[in-house]
Design goal:
Helix content: over 70%
Distance between the termini: 45 Å
Shape: globular
Structural class: mainly alpha
Strand content: under 5%
Radius of gyration: 18 Å
Order of helices and strands: HHHHHHHH
Number of domains: 1
Length: about 190
């Protein structure tokens, strides 16, 4: 497959992923659908649906970059150094997500469990510097991937992925959080 093919697949998978997330979050929030269907396994089932789709996003970006033969600048060190820096910052933020914020919260656990809603805001790691390390910092990895491969197509994918996660944030997450945390003084 060509780099263009991988880029199109990456963008389509991102769109499908975010539509599924929006549907599941809204159906869970308003109809408790996952909990009614799967009981206490609701978040496990959700993780099985969500995580492979999430993993496909950087993997298809890597494939787009790997297959690309069109250089961004031709100045490889000017691409590699910031690429490494962006990937390292994104990995640090991912560490912060997994170890401080926790995977259940990152999966949208506040749509599933009251005890997750009642947890305090995370203010350590990457969350010490930004309220939304997942979208704002972890997604910098896409830019780093594009730069490391020196790929125009991966750069386009990175732009789309990062912009589209913010569309999801403002169109799905923000309204859901407003409803979930309506009585919380911290949000």
């Amino acid at each position: 497959m060509t780099s263009y093919d991988w880029a199109v697949i990456s963008i389509i998978l991102a769109i499908v992923h975010q539509i599924i997330v929006a549907l599941v979050f809204r159906l869970q929030l308003h109809r408790n659908i996952m909990s009614r269907l799967f009981g206490s396994r609701d978040m496990t089932v959700w993780a099985v649906i969500f995580l492979p789709q999430l993993a496909a996003r950087p993997l298809t970006t890597i494939m787009a970059g790997w297959a690309d033969t069109t250089a961004i600048t031709g100045l490889r060190m000017a691409e590699i150094i910031p690429g490494i820096a962006l990937v390292l910052v994104a990995l640090w933020a991912m560490y912060s997500v997994l170890f401080y914020f926790t995977l259940p919260r990152a999966l949208g656990g506040d749509h599933f469990r009251d005890e997750i809603v009642e947890m305090p805001l995370v203010r350590v790691g990457a969350f010490k510097y930004t309220d939304n390390a997942m979208y704002g910092v972890v997604f910098l990895a896409f830019w780093g991937i594009a730069l490391l491969f020196g790929s125009w197509n991966a750069l386009v994918v990175a732009l789309f992925q990062h912009a589209y996660i913010w569309v999801h944030m403002y169109c799905t997450e923000a309204p859901d959080m407003a409803r979930i945390y309506a009585d919380s003084p911290d949000v």
